Amino acid sequence: MPTAVETYRLCRRCAERQGGGSLTFEIVGGPECSVCSGMMDRTTGMTELAARKARRYQFGSFAVGVTLPDGVQEREDELRSNLKLKGDETIKIQAARLVAAALSRGLGKKVDRQHPDLTVLADFGSGDAFVSSRPLYYYARYTKPGKISQKRSFCEQCHGAGCERCGGTGFGRKPSVEGLLRKKLSSLTGSEKMTFTWLGSEDRESRVFRPGRPFLVEIKSPEKRKLPGKFGARTRGGLVSVTRGRVLPSKPVKLPSFRFRTNIRAVAATKVTREALAELKSRFRGAAVRFDRPHNRPTIKTVYGVSARAKGRAISMEAELDGGLPVKRFVSGELVSPSVSEVLKTEVSCRSFDICGVKEIGGLEFGEITRGEEKD
User: Fold this and answer.
1) pTM above the 0.85 mark?
2) DSSP 3-state assignment of 43?
3) Which of 211, 270, 292, 350 could staple 331 via S-S, CB 3.0–4.6 A?
């Protein structure tokens, strides 16, 4: 009657992995192995496949995960249970280690299991390898001419569902900062999936002057990880310019707050006197204003200063405000108090405004930074 050991015929790698001490297994070819059925013989081919796919990407570090064929892990668990073996490592860990070591030698890249630029999934069940890249976080500033909106607008016909008119994108064809930057960043990184976060917004008609408005973009599964510190994207309406760009070490857990300077063109219901303009300057010198945000709690914002000139009912103002205080509401008094209309004691409406400077308050905050910023 065969012993328990004799019932298990193992390939060399599966036998060495068991750490059986004095136990001796019959060594057989891979396809006859009681545990892996030849899977361990396929690590070389899996490595070559993963390397071909990984070479599409720009990366400095990587990690390897493994998916086993059905039943492999269960057969190893059964063997160890019957023979009371702990084993040196599991078949899954061994396969991942072998593929990672071979990839590291072949590609000249380091293994980083905590924060890899690239993740390789070696699926021994399907015989395929899948590669994904760690998201890229790019922080920069943009300037823009008038008549270009900040965000993409939905298609007027399908309202985002995708149709023939919009080419299935769900978005309209009017130029926007987001649309232009998506196209440019896609060409630079090889990724079409990205999410933008803006530090404030402005009207489509507004111009944004240097040093520009800050923004953060998360670029998903990029093929290239290096981005320039500045670039331009031209459209029929003018040039959208990006400056002060840098790749961040990880996703920020908090963005800075900000204050901004704006030039406002407004019109009053009645003629504005010099005395009223002097009162406006006096009232809004470091003044606290209340903004009753729709569908949210009221907040207190600071107006750091306002200066104004008037010609008849036309008013030109320069103001410095806390980020998050809407310029048009601050002028009209809608949900904001005190407002320009309230101080001038007449109805005032904002016709247009430009962003002349955005100052960050504080910096970007990260949860756990494990490496320095990647250089441009």
Assistant:
1) yes
2) helix
3) 350
